[in-house]
Amino acid sequence: MATPAVSKRRSIKLEEKRLIIWLIESKAKTQADIVREYGLNKATVSMIWKKRDRYKSVVTFSDSSKKMRKSIYEDVEDAVFHWLKHARSVGIPVSGPLMKAKAAKFATALGHSKFSCSDGWLDRFKKRHNLSFHVLNGGVVPQELAKDWLENKLPHLLDHYETRNIFNADETGLFFKLLPDRTTTFKGDACHGGKRSEDRLTLLLATNMNGSEKLPLLAIGKTAKPRCFKGVKLLPVQYKHNRKAWMTGNLFTEWLLNLDRKFLRENRRVLMIVDNCSAHDPAAAERLEAIQLEFLPFNCSSLLQPCNMGIIQDFKLLYRKQLLQKLFAAIDDNDMDNFSVDVLQSLRWARLAWDRVTATSITDCFMKAGFIKTDLPATSTEIVDDQPEPSASSYDHDFGKIFEQLMLHFPNQCPTILEDFLWVDDNVQTAPGLTDEDIVAEVKAKSADVNNVQSDEKSSDDDSQDLPVPTPSSHEVHKALSLVQHYLERTGSAQDGSELMMTYVGKLDAHIAKLAGRDTIPKTVDGFSKR
Fold it and tell me: What distance in Å separates the CA atoms of residue 201 and residue 189, rounded to the nearest whole number?
């Protein structure tokens, strides 16, 4: 292969510099490889590597940024850009005069009396962030932005990562205890806070492109320590809290940094693609080493976000299937007085539902969003029952069965309401709609390097259902597992997976015995006599 001619003078985009740094850091290529393959000067590559910390700390949404330009009033620009990002994410048209008015307001709030909000400042701000008025004024529709991103940006990103290292993350709201007969009360509710926020969770779902690695769920509730958590040392999923059960910039950054450390330990380079939700702070990219954080174009999540193409819907169907199974059993046993769903139970169901979302479904959703690579998807390691993955129509079959049971148990509800029940919380708000005061407070906190600690609320006394369950004894657990074994032995078969489940029950029983210290074998006869 012929060696590319080294150009005498070439302006290198910031994104290209970051890519060069990634390649060298991950030991995918040496500096000599970069010089040879990219046709760059040896001194240029050496200088990029020498200044790597500076280049990695720059946050920009521009693909054509080449030089780093700093403002004297960085906090003002940070606030304006934060506001601009939020305005575009909710479809607010933005003009030059409006931006100048916002900048003046932020400058006053941040104590900069000498700040001059001139046309010159606006031009420099636009250049620093590579903004153009035809985008700011809404001249480009989401379909055009999505098409341009799919054709010109995404292929470049995908070329440098394996499918197992390409991730998408997104939040969704979940009315975790909602029953079909209450759907009309909740439908269309964005759930901004108040009493109803106690009935919902915000969940962060993240998975890679080939479905081989679904990251652990992050659940966000309103209460720090629900009463059902009393005595619990190990939760099914990671749990955080704040007053409105929303994702915040601090929570997202914390999650991202923990994930970054995990990938660093695994010596992996990872692409993480997220939308422009107000909680997804672009400044988080400054602190990442293993993750390249990329944002979808504004207002294009419904067109480009893999999680929105069916992954979240599959998860919710599988969650509500478990809730309804418990509900139907209570109705059939005439035991509705003891039917309840608390936060702990919902986290158990959420974990199991997420485990059951298949790699095939995930891969299909990424492809539907336009994420296409030539390398074959890896086989998922997440299948817990060693059974073949469901076919593409399996979820439709599940939906049909659930719908039939809903009609049977709720004959007075119209079919439309029952169908709405499955997707009632699709549009629930999961992050704050930032006010100017929120933005100023966040910028001040960041400047002072203050960690905005979440409200340390105590256990909620508002929900009588969230009562702690006494810890069962190991003997009680053993009896329960023995009952499960008897049931499987008398009703199951090798064809329906019961044989494998019996093995798991045996392993679980052994684990319980180990925790209780009952698996210790006495070394002497005295040991037996003492027992």
Answer: 14
Q: What is the mean pLDDT of the chain?
A: 76
pLDDT, greater one: 413 or 203: 203
pTM: 0.66
Q: What is the pLDDT of residue 192?
A: 46
Residue 405: what residue type? Answer: Q
Strand spans (E) along 275-320: 291-295
pLDDT digits (tens, 9 = 90+) for 324-340: 888 888 888 888 888 88
Structure tokens, 72: 């004297």
Structure tokens belonging to residue 363:
């891969």
Residue 464 to residue 223: CA distance in whole angstroms: 14
Residues across the chain: 531
In contact, 439 and 91? CB cutoff 8 Å: no
| Cβ atoms within 10 Å, residue 15 | 20
DSSP 139-190: -S-HHHHHHHIIIIIHHHHHTTS-GGGEEEEEEEEEETT--GGGHHHHTT--
Q: What are phi and psi of 200, to 5 degrees?
A: -130, 160
The span from the CA of 23 to the CA of 40, in Å, is: 15
Give, for 518, the enclosing helix (H) or strand (E).
Answer: none
To which residue do tokens 């030059």 refer?
96
